[in-house]
Amino acid sequence: MKQMKTITNMAVAIALMATVFTSCSKDEETTATGQNEELAQVNKSYVENTVYATYTRLADEAEKLSTMSEDFESQDALVALCDQWKTTRKFWEFSEAFLFGAASGYGIDPHIDTWPFDVAAFNNLFSKYHPATSEADAKIIDEQVATTQNFTGFHAMEYIIFRDGAPRQLADITADERYFVKAVAADLYLSACRLEAAWKGTANVKAARQQLLEETDMTPADFFGEEFINAGKAGSRYKTITDAALQIIGGCQDIIGEVAEGKIGSAYHGDDTNYIESPHAYNSIQDFYDNVLGCKHALYGGLTVEGTTPDAKSLIAYSQKHYPAETAVVVNALETALTKVNAMKRPFVKNYTDASCGEAIDALDALDEALSDLGLKFMGQ
Fold first, then answer.
1. DSSP class of 166
2. Are residues 246 and 10 in contact, defined by beta-carbon separation less than 8 angstroms?
3. Angular region, 25: left φ>0, alpha ψ -120 to 50, beta rest
Protein backbone atom coordinates (compact mmCIF):
# COMPACT_ATOMS: atom_id res chain seq x y z
CA MET A 1 0.00 0.00 0.00
CA LYS A 2 1.24 3.46 -0.87
CA GLN A 3 2.54 5.54 2.03
CA MET A 4 0.90 8.95 2.48
CA LYS A 5 3.22 11.90 2.11
CA THR A 6 0.66 14.13 3.81
CA ILE A 7 0.65 12.10 7.00
CA THR A 8 4.17 10.69 7.20
CA ASN A 9 5.68 13.77 8.83
CA MET A 10 2.51 14.95 10.54
CA ALA A 11 4.08 15.32 13.99
CA VAL A 12 6.84 17.55 12.64
CA ALA A 13 4.42 19.59 10.56
CA ILE A 14 2.00 20.14 13.42
CA ALA A 15 4.89 21.21 15.64
CA LEU A 16 5.89 23.75 13.00
CA MET A 17 2.32 25.04 12.90
CA ALA A 18 2.33 25.48 16.66
CA THR A 19 5.50 27.55 16.41
CA VAL A 20 3.96 29.76 13.75
CA PHE A 21 0.76 30.31 15.73
CA THR A 22 2.61 31.37 18.89
CA SER A 23 4.18 34.28 17.06
CA CYS A 24 1.17 35.49 15.08
CA SER A 25 -0.62 38.77 15.67
CA LYS A 26 -4.04 39.08 17.31
CA ASP A 27 -5.66 39.42 13.88
CA GLU A 28 -3.92 36.26 12.72
CA GLU A 29 -5.02 34.47 15.91
CA THR A 30 -8.60 35.49 15.24
CA THR A 31 -8.36 34.17 11.68
CA ALA A 32 -6.86 30.88 12.88
CA THR A 33 -9.60 30.49 15.48
CA GLY A 34 -12.27 31.11 12.87
CA GLN A 35 -10.76 28.55 10.52
CA ASN A 36 -10.54 26.02 13.34
CA GLU A 37 -14.23 26.47 14.10
CA GLU A 38 -15.02 26.12 10.41
CA LEU A 39 -12.88 23.00 10.13
CA ALA A 40 -14.50 21.51 13.23
CA GLN A 41 -17.85 21.75 11.42
CA VAL A 42 -16.28 19.97 8.43
CA ASN A 43 -15.18 17.11 10.69
CA LYS A 44 -18.60 16.88 12.32
CA SER A 45 -20.43 16.84 8.99
CA TYR A 46 -18.04 14.20 7.65
CA VAL A 47 -18.76 11.89 10.56
CA GLU A 48 -22.52 12.42 10.70
CA ASN A 49 -23.34 12.63 6.99
CA THR A 50 -20.76 10.31 5.41
CA VAL A 51 -19.34 7.83 7.93
CA TYR A 52 -22.54 7.25 9.92
CA ALA A 53 -24.66 7.17 6.77
CA THR A 54 -22.37 4.67 5.05
CA TYR A 55 -22.07 2.26 7.96
CA THR A 56 -25.80 2.39 8.67
CA ARG A 57 -26.57 1.50 5.05
CA LEU A 58 -23.93 -1.23 5.13
CA ALA A 59 -25.56 -2.76 8.22
CA ASP A 60 -29.02 -2.45 6.66
CA GLU A 61 -27.94 -4.14 3.45
CA ALA A 62 -25.94 -6.81 5.27
CA GLU A 63 -29.01 -7.60 7.34
CA LYS A 64 -31.00 -8.16 4.14
CA LEU A 65 -28.20 -10.32 2.76
CA SER A 66 -28.17 -12.46 5.89
CA THR A 67 -31.94 -12.91 5.85
CA MET A 68 -31.97 -13.84 2.17
CA SER A 69 -29.14 -16.35 2.64
CA GLU A 70 -31.20 -18.34 5.12
CA ASP A 71 -33.54 -19.65 2.47
CA PHE A 72 -32.82 -19.50 -1.27
CA GLU A 73 -34.91 -22.34 -2.65
CA SER A 74 -35.18 -21.30 -6.29
CA GLN A 75 -32.92 -19.97 -9.03
CA ASP A 76 -34.76 -16.64 -8.87
CA ALA A 77 -34.03 -16.46 -5.13
CA LEU A 78 -30.37 -17.16 -5.81
CA VAL A 79 -30.27 -14.42 -8.46
CA ALA A 80 -31.79 -12.01 -5.92
CA LEU A 81 -29.19 -13.08 -3.36
CA CYS A 82 -26.40 -12.34 -5.84
CA ASP A 83 -27.87 -8.90 -6.52
CA GLN A 84 -28.04 -8.23 -2.79
CA TRP A 85 -24.40 -9.30 -2.42
CA LYS A 86 -23.45 -6.62 -4.95
CA THR A 87 -25.55 -3.99 -3.20
CA THR A 88 -24.08 -4.79 0.20
CA ARG A 89 -20.59 -4.82 -1.23
CA LYS A 90 -21.07 -1.38 -2.74
CA PHE A 91 -21.50 0.21 0.68
CA TRP A 92 -18.50 -1.70 2.02
CA GLU A 93 -16.38 -0.42 -0.86
CA PHE A 94 -17.56 3.13 -0.17
CA SER A 95 -16.47 2.70 3.45
CA GLU A 96 -12.92 1.83 2.48
CA ALA A 97 -12.25 5.56 2.24
CA PHE A 98 -12.21 5.46 6.06
CA LEU A 99 -10.72 2.14 7.08
CA PHE A 100 -9.11 3.83 10.08
CA GLY A 101 -10.98 3.38 13.34
CA ALA A 102 -13.08 0.26 13.78
CA ALA A 103 -12.40 -1.41 10.41
CA SER A 104 -8.68 -1.61 11.05
CA GLY A 105 -8.61 -1.40 14.84
CA TYR A 106 -10.91 -4.40 15.28
CA GLY A 107 -9.48 -6.31 12.31
CA ILE A 108 -12.82 -6.20 10.49
CA ASP A 109 -11.34 -5.23 7.13
CA PRO A 110 -9.07 -8.29 6.81
CA HIS A 111 -11.74 -10.52 8.33
CA ILE A 112 -14.49 -9.78 5.82
CA ASP A 113 -12.54 -8.66 2.75
CA THR A 114 -9.42 -10.80 2.27
CA TRP A 115 -8.86 -12.41 -1.12
CA PRO A 116 -8.26 -14.71 -2.87
CA PHE A 117 -10.62 -17.09 -1.10
CA ASP A 118 -8.79 -20.20 0.15
CA VAL A 119 -10.42 -22.76 -2.11
CA ALA A 120 -7.99 -25.52 -1.07
CA ALA A 121 -8.83 -25.07 2.61
CA PHE A 122 -12.51 -25.00 1.76
CA ASN A 123 -12.35 -28.23 -0.22
CA ASN A 124 -10.30 -29.91 2.50
CA LEU A 125 -12.70 -28.95 5.29
CA PHE A 126 -15.84 -29.81 3.41
CA SER A 127 -14.48 -33.21 2.47
CA LYS A 128 -14.36 -33.96 6.20
CA TYR A 129 -17.22 -31.99 7.70
CA HIS A 130 -20.89 -31.79 6.77
CA PRO A 131 -22.48 -28.89 8.65
CA ALA A 132 -25.85 -29.26 6.97
CA THR A 133 -26.45 -32.61 8.68
CA SER A 134 -24.15 -32.57 11.71
CA GLU A 135 -24.38 -30.10 14.60
CA ALA A 136 -20.82 -30.93 15.66
CA ASP A 137 -19.54 -30.25 12.15
CA ALA A 138 -21.58 -27.06 11.99
CA LYS A 139 -19.80 -25.77 15.10
CA ILE A 140 -16.42 -26.43 13.47
CA ILE A 141 -17.40 -24.53 10.33
CA ASP A 142 -18.92 -21.70 12.37
CA GLU A 143 -15.63 -21.36 14.26
CA GLN A 144 -13.69 -21.18 11.00
CA VAL A 145 -16.02 -18.51 9.65
CA ALA A 146 -15.80 -16.45 12.86
CA THR A 147 -12.02 -16.54 13.30
CA THR A 148 -10.29 -16.71 9.91
CA GLN A 149 -9.53 -14.19 7.18
CA ASN A 150 -9.51 -15.83 3.75
CA PHE A 151 -12.18 -18.40 4.59
CA THR A 152 -15.00 -15.98 5.28
CA GLY A 153 -16.39 -12.62 4.27
CA PHE A 154 -17.52 -11.27 0.94
CA HIS A 155 -15.24 -13.44 -1.17
CA ALA A 156 -16.16 -16.69 0.54
CA MET A 157 -19.80 -16.03 -0.21
CA GLU A 158 -18.94 -14.85 -3.72
CA TYR A 159 -17.15 -18.12 -4.48
CA ILE A 160 -20.23 -20.17 -3.64
CA ILE A 161 -22.96 -18.14 -5.33
CA PHE A 162 -21.20 -16.80 -8.47
CA ARG A 163 -19.46 -18.42 -11.43
CA ASP A 164 -17.95 -16.56 -14.38
CA GLY A 165 -19.72 -13.32 -13.59
CA ALA A 166 -23.19 -14.80 -13.21
CA PRO A 167 -25.26 -16.43 -10.49
CA ARG A 168 -24.33 -20.08 -10.12
CA GLN A 169 -26.89 -22.77 -10.89
CA LEU A 170 -28.80 -23.58 -7.73
CA ALA A 171 -28.63 -27.30 -8.51
CA ASP A 172 -24.82 -27.16 -8.31
CA ILE A 173 -24.80 -25.77 -4.76
CA THR A 174 -24.67 -28.51 -2.13
CA ALA A 175 -26.51 -28.47 1.18
CA ASP A 176 -23.20 -27.96 2.99
CA GLU A 177 -22.37 -24.99 0.76
CA ARG A 178 -25.78 -23.51 1.49
CA TYR A 179 -25.05 -23.81 5.20
CA PHE A 180 -21.70 -22.10 4.61
CA VAL A 181 -23.34 -19.19 2.75
CA LYS A 182 -25.78 -18.71 5.62
CA ALA A 183 -22.96 -18.74 8.21
CA VAL A 184 -20.80 -16.32 6.25
CA ALA A 185 -23.67 -13.89 5.65
CA ALA A 186 -24.56 -13.91 9.35
CA ASP A 187 -20.94 -13.18 10.22
CA LEU A 188 -20.86 -10.34 7.68
CA TYR A 189 -23.93 -8.82 9.28
CA LEU A 190 -22.35 -9.06 12.73
CA SER A 191 -19.24 -7.28 11.46
CA ALA A 192 -21.34 -4.54 9.87
CA CYS A 193 -23.24 -4.06 13.15
CA ARG A 194 -19.96 -3.75 15.00
CA LEU A 195 -18.71 -1.11 12.57
CA GLU A 196 -21.89 0.91 12.88
CA ALA A 197 -21.90 0.71 16.68
CA ALA A 198 -18.21 1.53 17.05
CA TRP A 199 -18.64 4.74 15.05
CA LYS A 200 -22.13 5.86 16.11
CA GLY A 201 -21.95 4.60 19.68
CA THR A 202 -23.69 1.36 20.64
CA ALA A 203 -26.60 3.20 22.24
CA ASN A 204 -27.38 4.84 18.89
CA VAL A 205 -27.99 1.71 16.80
CA LYS A 206 -31.14 -0.43 16.60
CA ALA A 207 -32.01 -2.35 19.74
CA ALA A 208 -31.86 -5.67 17.86
CA ARG A 209 -28.29 -4.89 16.80
CA GLN A 210 -27.33 -3.94 20.34
CA GLN A 211 -28.69 -7.28 21.50
CA LEU A 212 -26.83 -9.20 18.78
CA LEU A 213 -23.54 -7.53 19.70
CA GLU A 214 -24.10 -8.25 23.39
CA GLU A 215 -25.00 -11.91 22.79
CA THR A 216 -21.85 -12.45 20.70
CA ASP A 217 -19.56 -10.48 23.02
CA MET A 218 -18.85 -8.06 20.15
CA THR A 219 -20.06 -4.82 21.70
CA PRO A 220 -17.38 -2.24 20.81
CA ALA A 221 -15.68 -0.31 23.56
CA ASP A 222 -14.95 2.69 21.33
CA PHE A 223 -17.03 5.61 20.09
CA PHE A 224 -14.97 6.70 17.11
CA GLY A 225 -17.47 9.24 15.83
CA GLU A 226 -17.51 11.18 19.09
CA GLU A 227 -13.72 11.17 19.22
CA PHE A 228 -13.47 12.49 15.67
CA ILE A 229 -16.03 15.24 16.25
CA ASN A 230 -14.25 16.21 19.49
CA ALA A 231 -10.80 16.43 17.91
CA GLY A 232 -8.56 18.71 19.92
CA LYS A 233 -10.44 18.03 23.17
CA ALA A 234 -9.63 15.73 26.08
CA GLY A 235 -10.48 12.11 25.39
CA SER A 236 -9.99 12.27 21.64
CA ARG A 237 -7.11 10.48 19.95
CA TYR A 238 -6.91 13.45 17.59
CA LYS A 239 -4.83 16.10 19.31
CA THR A 240 -5.94 18.92 17.03
CA ILE A 241 -8.87 19.68 14.74
CA THR A 242 -6.44 19.69 11.84
CA ASP A 243 -5.26 16.17 12.71
CA ALA A 244 -8.80 14.89 12.16
CA ALA A 245 -9.22 16.78 8.89
CA LEU A 246 -5.93 15.34 7.67
CA GLN A 247 -7.27 11.89 8.53
CA ILE A 248 -10.08 12.44 6.02
CA ILE A 249 -7.50 13.09 3.33
CA GLY A 250 -5.28 10.27 4.56
CA GLY A 251 -8.13 7.77 4.51
CA CYS A 252 -8.78 8.62 0.87
CA GLN A 253 -5.10 8.32 -0.01
CA ASP A 254 -4.88 4.93 1.67
CA ILE A 255 -7.54 3.36 -0.52
CA ILE A 256 -6.49 5.21 -3.67
CA GLY A 257 -2.97 3.86 -3.21
CA GLU A 258 -4.29 0.36 -2.57
CA VAL A 259 -6.48 0.39 -5.68
CA ALA A 260 -3.65 1.65 -7.86
CA GLU A 261 -0.80 -0.48 -6.54
CA GLY A 262 -2.59 -3.53 -5.20
CA LYS A 263 -6.04 -4.10 -6.58
CA ILE A 264 -5.13 -3.11 -10.14
CA GLY A 265 -1.35 -2.98 -10.09
CA SER A 266 -0.55 -6.43 -8.69
CA ALA A 267 -2.10 -8.21 -11.66
CA TYR A 268 -1.36 -5.51 -14.26
CA HIS A 269 2.36 -5.44 -13.44
CA GLY A 270 2.51 -9.23 -13.16
CA ASP A 271 3.45 -9.24 -9.47
CA ASP A 272 0.56 -11.53 -8.50
CA THR A 273 -2.04 -12.44 -11.11
CA ASN A 274 -4.09 -14.29 -8.49
CA TYR A 275 -4.56 -11.14 -6.44
CA ILE A 276 -7.80 -10.13 -8.13
CA GLU A 277 -10.71 -8.81 -6.13
CA SER A 278 -14.21 -10.22 -6.77
CA PRO A 279 -13.13 -12.43 -9.72
CA HIS A 280 -16.07 -14.84 -9.65
CA ALA A 281 -18.72 -12.11 -9.69
CA TYR A 282 -16.79 -10.09 -12.29
CA ASN A 283 -17.27 -7.19 -9.89
CA SER A 284 -13.65 -6.01 -9.71
CA ILE A 285 -13.95 -2.76 -11.66
CA GLN A 286 -17.16 -1.86 -9.86
CA ASP A 287 -15.27 -2.40 -6.60
CA PHE A 288 -12.48 -0.07 -7.75
CA TYR A 289 -14.93 2.57 -8.94
CA ASP A 290 -16.89 2.45 -5.69
CA ASN A 291 -13.65 2.86 -3.72
CA VAL A 292 -12.92 6.11 -5.57
CA LEU A 293 -16.55 7.21 -5.31
CA GLY A 294 -16.30 6.61 -1.55
CA CYS A 295 -13.44 9.10 -1.52
CA LYS A 296 -15.68 11.59 -3.29
CA HIS A 297 -18.30 11.10 -0.58
CA ALA A 298 -15.65 11.70 2.09
CA LEU A 299 -14.35 14.86 0.44
CA TYR A 300 -17.60 16.32 -0.88
CA GLY A 301 -19.91 15.33 1.96
CA GLY A 302 -22.88 13.01 2.22
CA LEU A 303 -23.37 9.56 0.74
CA THR A 304 -24.60 10.38 -2.75
CA VAL A 305 -22.65 13.02 -4.63
CA GLU A 306 -23.68 14.32 -8.03
CA GLY A 307 -21.40 16.42 -10.18
CA THR A 308 -18.73 18.57 -8.58
CA THR A 309 -20.80 20.71 -6.20
CA PRO A 310 -19.71 19.94 -2.63
CA ASP A 311 -21.79 20.14 0.52
CA ALA A 312 -21.35 23.52 2.21
CA LYS A 313 -19.68 21.93 5.26
CA SER A 314 -17.50 19.47 3.35
CA LEU A 315 -13.72 19.37 3.26
CA ILE A 316 -13.71 20.33 -0.42
CA ALA A 317 -15.93 23.37 0.21
CA TYR A 318 -13.59 24.44 3.00
CA SER A 319 -10.46 23.94 0.90
CA GLN A 320 -11.98 25.70 -2.13
CA LYS A 321 -12.33 28.74 0.11
CA HIS A 322 -8.87 28.60 1.66
CA TYR A 323 -6.72 26.70 -0.88
CA PRO A 324 -8.45 27.17 -4.25
CA ALA A 325 -5.53 26.30 -6.53
CA GLU A 326 -4.71 22.97 -4.89
CA THR A 327 -8.40 22.09 -4.55
CA ALA A 328 -9.05 22.67 -8.25
CA VAL A 329 -6.35 20.11 -9.05
CA VAL A 330 -7.94 17.58 -6.65
CA VAL A 331 -11.41 18.10 -8.16
CA ASN A 332 -10.12 17.56 -11.69
CA ALA A 333 -7.97 14.58 -10.71
CA LEU A 334 -10.88 12.93 -8.88
CA GLU A 335 -13.20 13.18 -11.88
CA THR A 336 -10.47 11.88 -14.18
CA ALA A 337 -9.78 8.94 -11.89
CA LEU A 338 -13.47 7.99 -11.78
CA THR A 339 -13.67 8.21 -15.58
CA LYS A 340 -10.53 6.17 -16.18
CA VAL A 341 -11.44 3.44 -13.70
CA ASN A 342 -14.93 3.15 -15.16
CA ALA A 343 -13.42 2.90 -18.66
CA MET A 344 -11.26 -0.13 -17.82
CA LYS A 345 -11.91 -3.15 -20.04
CA ARG A 346 -14.25 -5.63 -18.33
CA PRO A 347 -14.07 -8.10 -16.76
CA PHE A 348 -10.81 -7.25 -15.04
CA VAL A 349 -10.03 -10.91 -14.30
CA LYS A 350 -9.68 -11.49 -18.07
CA ASN A 351 -8.29 -8.11 -19.08
CA TYR A 352 -5.84 -7.14 -16.34
CA THR A 353 -3.03 -6.47 -18.83
CA ASP A 354 -5.11 -4.11 -20.95
CA ALA A 355 -3.73 -0.61 -21.49
CA SER A 356 -6.83 0.86 -19.85
CA CYS A 357 -5.61 -0.54 -16.52
CA GLY A 358 -2.38 1.42 -16.83
CA GLU A 359 -4.33 4.57 -17.62
CA ALA A 360 -6.44 4.07 -14.50
CA ILE A 361 -3.33 3.58 -12.37
CA ASP A 362 -1.82 6.82 -13.74
CA ALA A 363 -5.03 8.72 -12.98
CA LEU A 364 -5.14 7.32 -9.43
CA ASP A 365 -1.50 8.24 -8.87
CA ALA A 366 -2.25 11.80 -10.02
CA LEU A 367 -5.16 11.98 -7.58
CA ASP A 368 -2.94 10.72 -4.78
CA GLU A 369 -0.36 13.40 -5.60
CA ALA A 370 -3.01 16.12 -5.71
CA LEU A 371 -4.32 15.08 -2.29
CA SER A 372 -0.77 15.12 -0.94
CA ASP A 373 -0.35 18.71 -2.08
CA LEU A 374 -3.67 19.70 -0.54
CA GLY A 375 -2.73 17.99 2.72
CA LEU A 376 0.46 20.02 2.87
CA LYS A 377 -1.60 23.20 2.69
CA PHE A 378 -3.67 22.02 5.64
CA MET A 379 -0.41 21.55 7.53
CA GLY A 380 0.68 25.09 6.74
CA GLN A 381 3.33 24.23 4.16
1. E
2. yes
3. beta
Q: Assess contact for 57 and 199: CB atoms under 8 A.
A: no
- Asked if 375 and 9 count as a contact pair (C-beta separation under 8 A), the reply is no
pTM of the model: 0.92
Q: Which residues contact 129 (CB under 8 A, 6 or more apart)?
A: 137, 140, 141, 176
Angle between helix axes 315-322 and 324-342 (nearest 10 degrees) is: 140
Task: Report d(CA 326, CA 231) in Å as an integer.
Answer: 24
Nearest CA to 59 among 177, 188, 199, 182? 188
**Backbone region of residue 163 per phi and psi (left: phi > 0; alpha: psi in -120 to 50; beta: other values):** beta
Q: What are phi and psi of 235, to 5 degrees?
A: 95, -15
The H or E element containing residue 16 is helix 10-22
Cα maximum dimension of the chain = 76
Helices (H), 230-323: 241-258, 265-268, 284-300, 315-322
Residues 6+ apart with CB under 8 A from 322: 35, 377
Is the C-alpha dihedral spanning 164, 169, 172, 173 positive or negative? Answer: positive
Q: What is the pLDDT along the chain (381 residues), one digit of tens a residue?
A: 333 333 333 433 433 344 333 434 544 555 567 789 999 999 999 999 999 999 999 999 999 999 999 999 999 999 999 999 999 999 999 999 999 999 999 999 999 999 999 999 999 999 999 999 999 999 999 999 999 999 999 999 999 999 999 999 999 999 999 999 999 999 999 999 999 999 999 999 999 999 999 999 999 999 999 999 999 999 999 999 999 999 999 999 999 999 999 999 999 999 999 999 999 999 999 999 999 999 999 999 999 887 889 999 999 999 999 999 999 999 999 999 999 999 999 999 999 999 999 999 999 999 999 999 999 999 997
The three-state secondary structure class of 163 is: strand
